[in-house]
What we know:
The protein is mainly alpha-helical and 230 residues long. It has one domain (2-218). It has helices spanning 2-27, 48-83, 93-104, 108-111, 118-125, 139-149, 157-160, 166-177, 183-187, 192-218; strands at residues 32-35, 41-44. Strand 1 and strand 2 form a beta hairpin. The longest helix has 36 residues, at 48-83.
Amino acid sequence: METVLFDFNTRAKDVDDYFIFLERLEKQTTKLAVFEPAGTYKIQSLDPELAKTLRANGFLLLYNLVESTMRNAIEAIFQEFKNKGISFDRLKPKIKVIVLQNLKNRSPQKIHLTINQISTDIITATFEREELFSGNVDARLIKEIAEKYGFSYQTDFTKTKNGQNLVVVKSNRNDLAHGIKSFEEVGQDQAIEELLEMKEEVVEYLTQILENIRDYLDNEEYLELPTGNP
């Protein structure tokens, strides 16, 4: 999980740096220097049309942060099972269902080569990180995932709005990725102040979700309690 947190913090800083630079360009505290053929240069303000494209590009960066973070976090759960040698029998029923669903989607000819001890190896041998998400991550999906695995999806609403902006990020990203809207169309609807607020809420939401997952792993909340325990 520490690797996941390190990767998240690195990517989040990249996003922060981009938005800080864009804000400075738009407020003209940073300006562009355009070099002339004679070797001189002139100071130029940010072109309004280019500003729209740069704002729209912010949605791509934010969505990349969201999807990569959640993919890495789910992979970390399965890595925890592997590192601790957790057997299928010890998992909570809802996670057993996930493993069995993964098994259903795998070719026996492929996975039998990676299984030595079926009770433990079947959990990670059937996991495929590439199949987790495909442009569909928002707060509703994260809530569904949390309920499936058993970790908390609760966050501080005053700081995160419970991730409600993730659907805006996802929708704009998909419109751009599939050519439904141009960068200009997406960028013209968002002021830089709105984007900065959205970015802060999204990053804080992901931070708190990762903290929930770390607690989940630290407390081994994926294990079924022995019969007779409260």
